[in-house]
Design brief:
The protein is built from one helix and six strands. By secondary structure, it is an alpha+beta fold. A four-stranded mixed sheet has the order 5-2-1-6. The longest helix has 10 residues, at 59-68.
């Protein structure tokens, strides 16, 4: 099982822009399961590596960091955006 995952975040449904999707993230895979505290009921874990997310300007920079620190990793490639060009006049064409 890999220690880390490297991916490019997807655009959220509430966003119209793509500014936050230009960088690559490195997140650590969970090493222990999360348990509910018996007294308070909060869910937590003793794995603090899960709390850290590293941002990189490119996929190559994230891979170089993981290799430099001896991490096994898996790269998840982003789905390509399909752009269907259409004109403003297409909004008023009648479809039956």
């Amino acid at each position: 099982m890999p220690d880390a995952r490297i991916y490019q975040p997807a655009k959220t449904a509430a966003q119209s822009g793509r500014a936050k999707t230009r960088y690559w993230l490195l997140e650590m895979e969970p090493r222990s399961r999360k348990d509910a505290d018996r007294l308070i009921g909060w869910v937590g874990s003793d794995d603090t590596d899960q709390q850290v997310t590293l941002k990189f300007p490119s996929k190559d920079a994230a891979i170089a960091y993981a290799e430099r620190h001896g991490l096994t990793f898996q790269v998840y490639e982003p789905h390509e955006r399909i752009v269907k060009p259409k004109s403003y006049a297409d909004n008023f064409t009648r479809r039956i």
